[in-house]
Amino acid sequence: MLRRVFLIGAALAALIPATAAAKVKVATSINDLASIVATVGGPEVEVFAIARPTSDVHRVEVLPSYMVKVSRADLYLKVGLGLDQWADGIIDGSHNSKLTIVDCSKDVPVRDKPVKADASMGDVHPFGNPHYWLDPRNGAIAARNIAEALAKADPAHADAFHSRAEAFAKDAEEAWKRGKALTDKLTNSTMITYHASWVYLAAAFDLKIVGTAEPVPGIPPTAKHLADLIQIVKAQKVPVLLQEPYFSKDAGNFLSREAGVRVVVASTSCDTPAAGSYLAHFDQVLGAIAGTGASTGSTN
After folding, report:
1. Segments making up each domain of the chain, as ranges
2. Which numeric CATH code is attached to 12-175?
3. Runs of H (alpha helix) within the chain
4. Single pTM value for the model
């Protein structure tokens, strides 16, 4: 009898690693998608992101270590809309034949899709502005796409994935309402951005972008362009320049000195891939714009 109990116990113990290994392994291009995966997937997933939150997501170096990590994944979640084309090199280099690739931009209402795109327009995305995750309501759309992909990878937990996605959508709506309540109190809702990364954020929270430090996307500021921006800032009393941490601080320092604009340095991505980080990022960025919180992703 004791031997039989021992054998049963040993058999059950042997099942523990198999259960752990049964988690859906998910790779994402950015922390924001990873954070949503962590929320929607719960204990049934393992997730990691490739791009660091303070790096330029347009240009991520393809490293062998990324390929190794993706070689063990079941899903790869791309931002899509041509933003993370570098992910294709990582995916190809992973030689992972079982990997399912998911485009999280599916069903997102895309902004700024050009009628045509050529070199004179700078780094314009032909499929439209890809920074859609900077509207929390688009994060809810991505969550439903993610739940669908997870359900296919792990049908036994499909109901849980879909249920968590709907709960996340409600939380995203509350995050939007909370942010809107904050920006509605601003006496001047105009701002300048460094790059065209913040279009969705501005539209979601009724902020008005009246200029960009880059004359066209991907082209550094020129003296003439900065002089034009000074006139805009002074005429409209623009209070804020919002810029990413990986751009030079020179233009912001100049505009601050010459026109009194306040520079807010913030990453377009949330701090960590953990559940909750994505929605918390809106509170951080909007608080910094409103002057009630610190800059995020600061280079100082």
Report:
1. 12-175, 179-290
2. 3.40.50.1980
3. 2-21, 31-41, 64-70, 86-94, 136-153, 158-183, 199-204, 223-236, 250-259, 277-290
4. 0.88
Contact 53, 74 (CB under 8 A): no
Per-residue pLDDT of 76-95, as tens digits, reads: 999 999 999 999 999 999 99
Common-topology check for domains 12-175 and 179-290 = yes
pLDDT (tens digit per residue) in 166-193: 999 999 999 999 999 999 999 999 999 9
Spell out the CATH class of 179-290: alpha beta
Q: Find out whether 26 and 45 touch, Cβ atoms under 8 Å.
A: yes
Q: Crossing angle of helices 158-183/31-41, nearest 10°?
A: 130
The answer to whether 88 touches 184, Cβ cutoff 8 Å, is no
Q: Is the torsion defined by CA of 73, 105, 241, 294 positive or negative? A: negative
CA dist 78 and 293 (Å) reads 31
